[in-house]
Each structure stands twice: as structure tokens, then as C-alpha cells.
Amino acid sequence: MRVDIDMGTASPGKPAMIDLEELLATRLLVQGNSGSGKSHLLRRLLEQSAPWVQQCVIDPEGDFVTLADRFGHVVVDAQRTEAELTRIAGRIRQHRVSAVLNLEGLDVDQQMRAAAAFLGGMFDAEREHWYPVLVVVDEAQLFAPAAAGEVSDEARRISLAAMTNLMCRGRKRGLAGVIATQRLAKLAKNVAAEASNFLMGRTFLDIDMARAADLLGMERRQAEMFRDLARGCFVALGPAMSRRPLPVTIGSVETSARSVSPKLMPLPEKPEDVADLVFTPGPEEARMPVRRPAPQPIPTADLMAQLARPQPAPMPPPVEPMFPEIDEAEREAGIDTVLKEILEDPDAGFRTDAVLYQDFLVRCRIRRVAGEPLQLAAFRRRLAVARAGVDRKTAGGEAWPQALQLSESLPDDVQGVFLMVAQAAVTGAPCPSDATLARAYGTHSARRARRLLTYFEERDLIVVRTDFHNNRVVAFPDLGCETAPGDPNAPDEAAPSADAAE
Predict the structure, then answer these.
(1) Domains located in the chain, CATH noted
(2) What is the mean pLDDT of residues 58-68?
(3) In contact, 66 and 42? CB cutoff 8 Å
(4) In sequence order, what DSSP letters do the residues of 154-219 get, joined into one string?
(5) In whole angstroms, how far apart are CA 434 and each of 41, 235, 451?
(6) Quick one: what percent of the chain has pLDDT higher than 90?
(7) CA neighbor of 184 nearest in space, from 160, 163, 161, 211
(8) Is the distance from CB of 233 to CB of 32 less than 8 angstroms?
């Protein structure tokens, strides 16, 4: 079924139409400087296509939440855990509900993590829920930056991976990416290159004009036209719009953003007691902290004189230790007990390492575990070993230390899954099912668990085979052992049953 979306007016006076079905298959990239009308264009596209297709908007500034009043979009506040956002995104795809992910109020690092969790939940939906969805990402350069910035490397990595999945692999899952950016130079090339439709607005930098002209198949001397475009005017190209560059003026919209461009207005009349109004705090005004002056730099001559002074003689060591010696065996036993308590919680596998680490620190203080607390990296390693559930006899054998050494070459988040399968091989237990491996990885998706086994096999750590009863066997060539046959579709034995939940 062909559905044409009216975006406004083309240059000859004809309506500018977008073939919605073609757009879902070929994706769209919108580029323009701040104030060029990108958000207005996205709002027009969303309003015109709302009756025909499910929509999800990644909204970093909270501008699109007004769609809820007119078109019934569900507003999802991003101030939740990443696991919650992933589950909410899965239910949105299941029930075919249009939604707006409101990232307002979060810093850039948190916005990237929340958007990645939400897009990951939509991407990992079950196959029977792969309905067409128009996924609109405003300010896409925040979530798919071309270079590292002030955010953490981990946040940039997971956000860029989610955006790459949306634009590169999302079509087969029904996800049609519509991304808008202020500058093409700031957007990752592997994300921008997957779009086949373009709407280029006003821009002034030479590098952005040249890149926009290249994408539209225009000559470099024609790139100057992008400086002359008015607000709300774009040049369209793509199979869903036009086979040749076509100037388009975006039409009006029914809803409006909460934030608008500043307008000039006359200053208020100056009262007589203006000085008292400025320098006298109001009764309801909170007391602000006093800014202390920055310390004056020490002259270089004084620093050199301080360094030239003789150091005082070191004090003799005390005869007796100031603090009681720590019993390392008791401390290790306390840490093992705390880790066991954490893993006994059925939901522990679906919480982030940061949340589990805070719970670990609190439990250690409650149990009076002596010594310095484990750092986050050491905690992740101990948690991965604890999840494998190795008894003392297995840990004292020759194969298990070698399995621990092999796991050190893997990322932190998959070591627990690798050690769980290695423990089954060392002890000759049946191969864990997909549901059990998914719980150890912190997900409900069995496909992710199978992809992890494929990842281990690609690194030549394991060999996976299936016997004549369709049971799975995992062999470890470096350890010289393999698991017993196990049903990959068996339920997770550690998951709580419905009777127990009641």
C-alpha cells in the first residue's frame, strides 16, 4: 500500500510528498544548523505519518512530548534504570504504541546510556513483534559522535553501537531510522552512510556544505546555495522523495515545542528602588554558597626554596602495629558470603554491575568485612567467578585455574557466561540452556546467549556441536574437557517458578 506524506511545498508550487513505505525501507538523514528548522521538519513528518505507522522519538530536549496530547504518544521518562528502559522498549514494540523517550534533565553521558538501552530493547524484540516503526533521533550527533568527547568511552561505545544497529541492521527488524544533526562532520560516518534519503538545510561551514553537496550528487560550486536557504527550507533527494535535488519548504504543524526561539521584547520600566531589588535577597530565596577567591600562585623562587630544604629524618617504625592485623582468610570468606547473598536474588542477573557494586559495598559494611573494599574491576572479576558456582574440589583442580586464565582475555561483561560453561565442562555437567546463559549475561533474550557462544567459538576458546538428540555439547580444547549434552531450550532452573511467585 502506497501512503504519501505531505511535507509542504516543492519549488514549482507542487506539494512535496514522501512515500512512507519507501522511507521505512531506505531511512532518512536531516542536516541543518541550529535554527534551520530541523525540529519543525521532524514534527511535520511525525504529525503527518502518525495515523499510518508506529513512532518512537529519542528526544534529548523534551521538545516532542507535546505529541502526547494531540496524537496519543506515550512519554517515557528516561530517569530510570537501563534494565527498565530496555523492558519498556520491548513492551512498546509488542503492543505497537507510539512513544517519546524524554531525555531532558540528564547529562550527556546519561542520555547516551539511556538511549542505547531503549534502542537495544527495540532492536532485540522477538521476531513476532517486528512491526514497522519510525524511529526519530533528534540531535543524532550526541548519540553517534564522530570523535571522542567529554563523555566516557563506555557510554560512547554502547550508544554508537545502538545507533549503528538502528541504521545498519534495523530495516529487517522493522526499524526505520530518521536522524537529524546540526553538523555532518560531527556525525559518525558509518551511521550517516546508511541513509538513502536526505533533507539538507541551511549550513555555513565549508566542510559541511561540501559534504552535503557530495551526498546530494551536486557539484562543489553549487554548495554555496546551502548558505542562502531560509528557515524551514531544505533540499530533498532520495528514492522516497525525488530522484533529483528538489528544494522543499516545510509546511505548518499542529503541535508546538515547549521551547521556542527567543523573541525581542521591550525592557520593563525601571523602578525607583532598583538597587534594593538587586542587592537585597528575597525571603524565599535560598542562600547560595559563597565563592571563595582562587588561591594565588606560589612564585617559582619560593617553590625552588621549598624543594631545596632538607627533608626531616623519617620516624622509626612503631614497635607494635597501630591497627590489628587483618585475617585474610576471614576477609575472603566474608566477601564470598556477600557475593553469594547477592546472587541468591533472582533479579541480580538483570541489574547493572554498578548497582550490584553499591549493594556489595553496603552488605560488606553490614557484615563488618575488614580491609579496603574491592575496586569495581576486582568486584566484576569476583562476581563472574561466583556466578560460575565452582565448589572447592573443582577450584583445587588443574583445569579450573587455566579456565580462569582464559577468561581474562574476554570483556568483563561476558566472563561470567564463559566461566559458567567452563565449570560445566570441568565437572562434566550438562551444558547450560540458553535461558540460564541469558540470566548470567543479564538479559531475557535467548538469542543473545547463543550469540555469546558464537563469539567464544570465533575466538577459538570453545567448540560447539549438537548430538543426535539435538542436545548441545561445548568442548574446551585448551582444557581437554567438554560438557555433557544439555537441552538448549530447557528453562532456567534458577528462575523463580509461577507457584513460588504466588
Answers:
(1) 4-250 (3.40.50.300), 327-374 (no CATH), 392-493 (1.10.10)
(2) 89
(3) no
(4) HHHHHHHHHHHIIIIISGGGTEEEEEEES-GGGB-HHHHTT--EEEE-----HHHHHHHHHHTT--
(5) 44, 49, 10
(6) 14
(7) 211
(8) no
